[in-house]
User: Fold these one by one.
Assistant:
Number 1:
Amino acid sequence: MQADWLMPLNDLFLPLIEFMDQGGAVLWWLAAVVAVYWLLVIERILYLVFTFPKQRKQWIEQWHQRSEHHSWHAHAIKQGWIGQAHIALTQNLNVIKVMVSICPMLGLLGTVTGMISVFDVMATQGSSDPKLMASGISLATLPTMAGMVAALAGMFVHARLVKTCRLLEMKLEKSLRSQR
C-alpha cells in the first residue's frame, strides 16, 4: 500500500513516464543528456552570480593596491588575471554546447529505431493497416520532437551564457585598465 503523500507525485509523473515509454529507450538517454546539460547550466549560473563577482572584486582590489601599473611586470600580472578569468568563465561551456548538439541526434536515433520496430511489426504480422502504420510512425517521431525542443532551449541558454561571460570578461579588463 502506498503512502498518501505519494499519490500526488504519481499523478504528476504518470504523464511524463507514459510519454517517455511511448518514445522508447532512446528518449530516456535523451532525458539523461538534457538533465546533465541543465545541471551544468545551473552550475554556470551559480558561478556567475555568486563566485565570479567575489573573485573579480579581489582582482580589482589587488590591482588598485599596486603602486605602479605601467611596467611589463604589472601588465603580465593583469593579463594573467584576465586569462584566469577567461578560463573560469568559459569552463563547461563547450561541454554544454556538445551536449546540446547531441540532443537532435539522439532524437533522430529514436525515430530510426522506432521506425525499424514499426516495420518489424508490419513484417511479422503481414499487416499494412494505415491506422497501425500512422500510430507507429507518430510514436516514432516523438524522440525527434523531444530532441529538437531540448536542443532549441539549450542553444538559447548556451548563447546567453557565452554572451554574459564575454561581457563579464570585458568589464574585468576595463576595470583593470582604470586607475584610481
Number 2:
Amino acid sequence: MQKNSMFIEQHDPEAYAQNGDIRKNFVDDDGREKRTGTWITASAHIITAVIGSGVLSLAWAIAQLGWVAGPAVLMAFSFITYFTSTLLADCYRSPDPITGKRNYTYMDVVKANLGGRKFQLCGLAQYGNLIGVTVGYTITASISMVAVKRSNCFHKHGHHVKCNTSNNPFMIIFACIQIVLSQIPNFHKLSWLSILAAIMSFAYSSIGLGLSIAKAAGGEHARTSLTGVTVGVDVSASEKVWKAFQAIGDIAFAYAYSTVLIEIQDTLKSSPPENKSMKRASAVGVSTTTLFYVLCGCLGYLAFGNDAPGNFLTGFGFYEPFWLIDFANVCIAVHLIGAYQVFCQPIFGFVEKWCHERWPENKFITTEHGVNIPCYGVYYVNLFRLVWRTLYVIVTAVLAMIFPFFNDFVGLIGAASFWPLTVYFPVEMYITKSKMPKYSFTWVWLKILSWACLVVSLVALAGSVQGLIQSLKTYKPFQAEQ
C-alpha cells in the first residue's frame, strides 16, 4: 500500500481535495485530520515538558538563594510563565483568537502577528533551544541509568567505593529507544507517551520529596539560612554571586515550555475554543509544577541545607533504601524518554514540512508505504522520515558522548532563548493584536515586565558562561565516567 503524502499535519489540505478516500478523514475547519486533544492531554504535555529531572536540583538552587529569595523567585516565575502562556494561547488563531486562521507552529504565530525579521529570530531561538534540550536529555537520562547501576554497587560494596561507570553504553540504549519512538508520526499521536511521562515525573518527585522529609525528620539538622550559602564559610563572595545567578536562571528556565506551546495547542479539538482549553491546561500544568517545585526545593533544602547536591537522586544525597533510589532513577529515565519526544517533534515537523515544500515531486520524501502490523492495523512508513529522524537521534547521541558537559551549553541556550520565546514575543504579539495605545498603563507595565525578564536572562547568561568556563577547565576528554 502506498500513498503520496507526508503525515497529515504537514500538508495543505487542498492538495487532497480530489482524493475521496483520504479527504473523508479531514473534518476540522482547516481541512486537516480531526483534532481530539483536550485540556487533560495538553496538561500532560505541559507537565512532561516542564517537570524535568531539574526538579531534583531545586534544593541546590534554594540553597544558593536562601529561605527568602528562593521561594519568592519560584513563585514569581510561575506567575510570569502562566501569564505569558495565556497571551501566547490567544495567538494560535489570527486575527481572532476563536474564529481566526490557525497557526500551526510558534514561527507561524510570530509570522502572522509580527512578520519580517522577528519571524527568523524566533525560529533561530526556538529550534536552537530544542536541539540543545534533546542533547541535554540524552546526557541526563544516561546519568539516571548509571545511577541505578551505581546504587546497586554502593549497596553491595559500601558507600566508600567509587563505583565509576561509563555513560556511553546507556546513551546508546537511550538512542535506540528514541529511534523507535521517533517514528511516531506527529504530536497528535504522543498523548499516551506524555501521560506516561507525566506519571513518572510525579513518581520520582514524590520519592525525592518523601526521602527529604524522612531525612529532615531523622534528627540531623542541616545548616540553612535566610540568605542561603554563607560567604566565607561555604563559598567565596564571587562564587556566591555566580551561583546565585545560576540558581535564578535554573528556576526561570525550569518553567519554560513556550517552545512547544503552540504545537501542543494544535492538538486540541475546537470545542471548547482552543485558547480556553490551553489556558486551563496551562493553569493546571503551571500550578502542579509550582507545587512540586516548592515542596521539593524547600524540603530538599531543609534536609540537606547549604550542602545540597546538584541532584539528590543521581548525585547520591541518599543511598538507602537502594531499591527505592533505583526505582526513582528508572522513573526519571522513562520520563526523559517521553520528554525527548515532546521537544523533538517540532523539529521533525519543521524539517519535513520544509523538505516537502522544497521537493514536492520527490517520491522518497512524499511517498508512504502501508505496513500491516498485528494488533495495530496499517502503519504508514515514510522512508525520508525514517532515515532523517534516525540520523537526528544518532547525531544527538554522538554529541552527548563527545561533550558530556553539554548541559552547560543547554543552560547557555536556555538563557539566550528564555526572554524572546517566553516573554518578548508573547508580549509584543498581544500588544499588536489588541492595538494597544502606546504609553498606556497596560503598555507600560507589559514593557517593564519584558525588560525585567531581559535583565534576568542576561544575568543567567553570565552565570551559564561562567559555569561553562569552569566545566571546560575541569573537563577530561577521555574520561567518560560520572
Number 3:
Amino acid sequence: MRDRPTTPPPQPPPSSGAPPPEASGSPPSHRTAARAAVALGACSVLLLVLVAVRWHPLVTLDGDIARTAHRWAVRDRALTQACRVLTDWVWDPLTMRLVCAAAAGWLVWRRAAWWTALWLAVAVALAAIVQQSVKAAVGRPRPVWPDPVDSAHYAAFPSGHALTATVVCGLLLWLLRRRGAGRALWRTAVAAAVVSVAGVGVTRVWLGVHWASDVLGGWLFGALLVALAVLVYEWPRHRRGTPAGRRG
C-alpha cells in the first residue's frame, strides 16, 4: 500500500498580473484586431472620401507640403539622391515582398509552419490587389513639376510604397511577438519597422511623386489590412474558444 502524503503539494505563488488570455474568454489578439479594424476602416474610408471629392482644406494642405518638399529636394541634390536609393531599392514594394517571401520560406524550413507561411504570402498578395484597385477607383493624379527629381507610374492614392511597407512590417512584427521574440530582437525589429514605414512615406513626398495624404492613406489601408489578416488568422481558434497556440 502506497504512502499518501500528509500535506498538500506546494502551490505556486499567486500572480499579481492579469489573468491568462484563456481565462478571460476570447483571445486579446482577436479582440484588439477587431477593434483596430473598425477604427482603421472608418479612418480609411473617411480619407478616401475626402480625397475623392477633393476636399479643399485637404487639397490645400497637400499642395503646401508638396511645394515646400519639392523646393528642398531641388536645392539639396545629395539628400534627394539618397532618398531615391532608399525608396527604389531599400523600401521598394518588391524589396518588401522579397523580405516577406524570405520570412515565409524560413517558417516552412525551420518551423514547418505551412499554414502561417501561406497566410503571410496571401495577405501580402491581397494587399497588392487592394492597393491597385483603390488606385484605379480613385484615379488621383500625382504632383506635376516643371523640374521633377523623380517619376512614378499609376495613380497617386494610396501610396503603394507606404501601404506595402506597413503591411509587411506589421505582419512580421505580429508574428515575432506571437512567437515570443527576445527583447533585443523585438526592439531591433520595432525600430527597423518604424524607420522603414515612416521613412518610405517621407521619401515619397520629398521626391514629389506623392501627396502627403497619399502616404497617410497608404499607412491607414496598410494597418487596416494587417488588422484584418490577424482576424483571419485568429478566427478558427476564436470560434473554438481554445487557448493560444502555435499553428503549423
Number 4:
Amino acid sequence: MELLDKDLVSIQEVRNLIRNAKEAQKKLANMSQEEIDRITKAIAEAGYKNAEKLAKMANNETGFGKWQDKILKNVFASQNVYESIKDTKTVGIIKDNKEKKIMEVAVPVGVVAGLIPSTNPTSTAIYKAMISIKAGNSIVFSPHPNAKNCILETVRIINEAAIEAGCPEGAIACMTVPTMQGTAELMKNKDTALILATGGEAMVKAAYSSGTPAIGVGPGNGPAFIDKSADIKLAVKRIIDSKTFDNGTICASEQSIVIEKALEDVVVKQLKESGAYFLTEEQTKQLSKFIMRANGTMNPQIVGKDVKTIAKLASLNGIPQDAKVLIARVTKVGHDVPYSREKLAPILAFYVEDNVETCCERCREILLNEGAGHTFCMHGTNEELIKYFALRMPVSRMIVNSPGALGGIGATTNLASALTLGCGAVGGSSTSNNIGPLDLMNIKRLGYGVKEVEDLRGSLTEAEVAVTSEFSSIDKEKLIDLLVKRILEELK
C-alpha cells in the first residue's frame, strides 16, 4: 500500500526507525567499554572535522546567528563534550565500594528520542548522539522542520563515522519527513525509552505529556547582576561577548542587567563604550511591539538576528550602524513586558534598583516570571554576597564572572559540558543537571548484607522486642502506653 499523506508517511518512517534502533541498541548493550568509547570518539572526530561545513549549512538554512560562532558551537559539541565524558565509566560495573559492600551497574535505557531545535541544530545533534551512544543507547532524531537539511547532514556524517568505528546500523537515525504527527509517534511509541527534548516550551510540555520518561528544558531568561565589587569593564565585556555570541541563540545567555543606583553612571558609560545602544523611550515602545506576538510568544523574526537586521525589521530609526546590543530601560516585570522575558537576540533589559536587597528581589522576580530553574549570572568578588545570591536564586546554575551563554554550557566554566541544561522541578524539568551520559542510563545497585535480624533487635529494650515479635497479640492500648513511656524517657 502506497502512503500518500505526509503525516502517515512520517509516522510509518518513525516506526521503522524505532524498530531498527531497538535492534541496534541490543547490540550496543553487549559491547565493551572500549568498543563504546571508540564509537564515541569517532562521532566527536567527525563533528570536529566538519564543524565549519555544518555551521555554514545551519546559518544558511535557518538564518539564525553567525556561522563563525556556530563553528565554535560544533567544536564545543564534539571536542569539549567528548573531553568531559571520555573517561566516564558507562558499561558494566561502574562503581564497587568494598567498604560499604555496594556495587553499581550501568543499565542503558534503550531507544532515545532526540528532539532538535533550529537555534542550535547541528551542535545539538552531535552532542545528543555522542552522550546517547556513550550510555549504550541508540537515538532517533526529530529535526526542527526549519533546520531539517543541516540536521540530516550532521546525522549522516556522524552516523557514517560511528558505523566505521563499529557502531551497529540504525543506532543513530533521523526522520526525513518531520511532522507533528510523526514526532508524536516518536515520543509515544512503546519502544521509545526516553525523550531528550531541547526546544520551545510547547514542545517540551508535549514531551512531558507523552507518557514516556522525558528530560526536557524550559526557557532561559537569566538576569545578570553587576555588584560594586566587580571589575565593571570586564563584567560589561563578558555580558556583551555572551549576548552577541551567535546573536544570542544560546538559552543561557543574559536577558537583562540589574544594578544598584550607585553604579548606574559608570555601568551605562561602560556599556556605551563597549558598543551597546540605549533605546530612547519612543524606540523602546516601538521595539517592544515587535519582540512579542499578540499571543504572548516571542516573534521568531528577531531570533538570532543582529542589531542592524532587527532595527530594519522593526523600522527603528537612529540606531548606530556599529551597535552590538540594544538596551531598553524598564521598571516592570511581567508576561506582558517583552523586555523582561527571554529574547534570543542581542536585546537586553536594564533595571536600576535602590540597593543589593532590591536587586536580588528583582532578579528573583524576573526568573519566577520566566526562566525559573535555568541560569543566573553575577559579576563581583564579594564572596559573602555571592553566597547570599546563591541561596536565593531559583536556578539550577549560577554563573559567576563569566559570559552566561558560554559559562552555562560549561565552555568557560568547569560545569559539565552540555547543550541541554536541566531546569529542575522549579522550572518544570525532571533534572537540574547539565545533561550527560549518566542522565541517560539507569543504575542497578547491589547491596550485600551486613547485618542480621538479631543485630537490628540488639538495640531494642526487652519490652520493645516483645512488641516486635508478638505485635499481633499485643493489646493496642498497652502498645501505645509503652511507646509514650519510651518517648518521655527520651525527652528526659
